[in-house]
């Protein structure tokens, strides 16, 4: 697992072997309750962002 410099992770679960690029915001900015974006490496359940196992979140991503 790795979190890049300048990234913010709040109210999130990061599964094993997941990588988050630099300057990402994993904060559920839109206040979404449920979403499935498995093709992008994450899901949202009950407002909690879950970064899926072995995912690679590109630098600058805002969730």
Short structural summary:
The protein is mainly β and 63 residues long. Helices cover 0% and strands 40% of the residues.
Written overview of the protein:
Keywords: Allosteric enzyme, Nucleotide-binding, Nucleotidyltransferase, Transferase. One of its GO terms (molecular function) is glucose-1-phosphate adenylyltransferase activity. It catalyses: alpha-D-glucose 1-phosphate + ATP + H(+) = ADP-alpha-D-glucose + diphosphate. This is glucose-1-phosphate adenylyltransferase. The structure is a single chain. By secondary structure, this protein is mainly beta. The protein has one domain: Hexapeptide repeat proteins (UDP N-Acetylglucosamine Acyltransferase, domain 1, 3 Solenoid), CATH 2.160.10. It is 0% helix and 40% strand. The chain has strands spanning 2-3, 8-9, 12-14, 19-20, 25-26, 34-37, 42-45, 48-51, 56-57. Strands 3-8-7-6 form a 4-stranded mixed beta sheet, with no helix packed on it. A 3-stranded parallel beta sheet has the order 1-4-9, with no helix packed on it. A two-stranded parallel sheet has the order 2-5. The chain is globular, with a radius of gyration of 10 Å.
List the helices and strands and how they pair.
Elements: E1 2-3, E2 8-9, E3 12-14, E4 19-20, E5 25-26, E6 34-37, E7 42-45, E8 48-51, E9 56-57
Parallel strand pairs: 1-4, 2-5, 3-8, 4-9
Antiparallel strand pairs: 6-7, 7-8
Keywords:
63 residues, mainly beta, UDP N-Acetylglucosamine Acyltransferase, domain 1, four-stranded mixed β-sheet, three-stranded parallel β-sheet, transferase, allosteric enzyme, nucleotide binding, Trimer_LpxA-like_sf, EC 2.7.7.27
